Amino acid sequence: MKNLSMILVMMLLSWNLQTHSQPLPTQQQKIDALFKEYNNAKTPGIAVSVIKDGNVIYQKGFGMANLEYGTPITEKTKFHVASLSKQFTAFMILKLEDEGALSIHDDVRKYIPELPDYGKTITLKHLLTHSSGLREQWRLLEMAGWRLDDVIKTEQIFKLITNQKEVNFSPGDSFRYCNSGFTLLAIIIERLTKTSFANYAKQTIFEPLKMSDSFFYDDHEELVSNRAYSYKRVNKKLKKSRLNFATVGPTSLFTTVEDMSKWAINFQKMTIGNKKIFQSMNARGQKNNGSFVSYAKGQFIGNHKGFENIFHSGSDAGYRSYFVRFPDLGYQFILFANASYINSSRETFKLVNYYLKDKTPKNGRSASRSKIFKYDQTKFIKLSNAEMKRFEGTYFEREEKSYRKVQLKNDTLYYIRASGKSSKLLAVGKSNFKMLGTPYDVSVNFKKNDYGEPILELRIPEIMWLWLSKVTKTKSSSDYLGSYYNDELSTQYDLVKKDNEFYLTHPRLDDIKITQITQANFSSKNRNFFDIRFKRNKAGKVIAFSVSNDGIKNITFSKK
Predict the structure, then answer these.
(1) What pLDDT is stored for residue 20 in this prediction?
(2) Cα dihedral angle (545, 546, 547, 548), rounded to 10 degrees?
(3) Residue 339 — very low, low, confident or very high, per pLDDT cuts 50/70/90?
(4) Closest Cα partner for 131 from 332, 342, 288, 309?
């Protein structure tokens, strides 16, 4: 028994020694663990970099750059970073302004006379801040019958942009993200510098910063060594996601996280550029009414846990990218990915939250919003059931392509989401309500649109403004059927009926099912045709339909 006791004591001591002798994980191991799902030879992956006060403190690749040849991602893997390109374009324009070659307040038509005169001046600043009102080039291409994996060149985009007879809104009145503006900026750079956009970027940015693995890809057949290939997931199976862009300005920068770190550090060290350029680059855009938007020039301005940040993301084919700077803290974070299902923002903020977990804003409070917005109860008024019942019905939300319901229950009006979750609506006017139980001040207003049709307007100040159409019973009619043509896109769609459903057909595209919402309104799950309005002449015959989406407002197809 004595020997057994000694053995047990020795085993216990040995176990304690083994337990306490195991080293704690290092900071690098902790960060590596954040991305362990990509750390294998069977999936696409990511490359990341963290910079603090002008020094790279973490940099690594996870997953595979090429699944067919088993090439791993490293810090030297070249990624197409999509819209991160815009800040490079903005920098080059501001550099030319600093040198006296242009002013961002110049009329775009001074450099591009091919652009139609829309009655109001569009400036270079409007292009830089997405406030030009120009129609979005990718939506135009898709509606014209292009696939985004076609070979797409700047010349073809330029023809489409300059063939548009209208703009979405008066320049400076609003903010709407628009790649077309950055294509025009690239053309302006080429016309002023008498060299290609890619070459000017090489001379003014990449060579001075020793970004030897960075270039603008303006030739879709150019060989790119050590590149990450682009993937997507279809029915749980990985497939190639092809990209054949030969267009620059808003996109097409190839770079590595190692090179991108040099660009990030330049915001602090200013090896190229100067304080004036970067102050202009970081300044928020301002609308005609004096209000500011969250977009600067090639960059968004945001806030995370009370800390201001400057960021942008990128998304083309299966490529995803994210770059965020925290100027007050000296931190910068970069993440590139090569699969469309990877959420670059979410993955980047794993790093952000790790490094900023112990940081406290200067005011000592986080900027996080309280759980439930508190209303002044004295503002609510009492409406009768009869007054509220007229708002009952089904409402269609075009952007999410889903339905909402408004229903009167127990003397209270409810807003019911597609998920089935509901929120109380309390009246502050005869047709104006506030939504309870959310973190925001949500206004719900029942009104009529410009066509006299009932709609639900949902507003969150400075965040969201949506209109939902009230679904009305309509008779299925054959007078919608026929061929419709748009000369700005030089393309035709045929509206046909199959199995009692309406479809738009095009020779180069899959058939697009459209669903009737009201007598005049149709919608579709296709992102280019989610808002369709048919027009009739005085005799009541259908003569055209107009289409609006996230990049185009009211482009008209006339019935042949």
Answers:
(1) 46
(2) -150
(3) very high
(4) 288
The tokens of 554 are what?
């009211």
Give me the DSSP letters along 497-525. EETTEEEEEETTEEEEEEEE-SSSEEEES
Contact in structure between 398 and 405 (CB atoms under 8 Å)? no
Residue 170 pLDDT:
97
Instruction: Compute the distance between CA of residue 86 and CA of residue 359 in angstroms, rounded to an integer.
Output: 30
Helices (H), 77-178: 85-98, 124-128, 137-143, 154-162
**For the CA atoms of 459, 461, 464, 467, what is the dihedral angle to 10 degrees?**
20
- Identity of the amino acid at 516: Q
- Residue 463 confidence (pLDDT) above 80: no
Quick one: average pLDDT of 506-531?
93
In sequence order, the β-bridge partners of residue 320 are 315, 337
The strand pair at 432-435 and 402-409 is best described as: unpaired
The residue count for the chain: 560
Q: What is this structure's pTM?
A: 0.87
Given a cut of 60, is residue 508 above it in pLDDT? yes
**Domains assigned to the chain:** 79-355 (3.40.710.10), 377-470 (2.40.128), 478-559 (2.40.128.50)
Say if residue 384 is exposed, middle or buried (CB neighbours under 10 Å; 0-12, 13-18, 19+). exposed
- Check if the beta carbon of residue 298 is closer than 8 Å to that of residue 312: yes
Which two tokens mark 425?
């609506």
Exposed (0-12), middle (13-18) or buried (19+): which is 49, by Cβ within 10 Å? Answer: buried
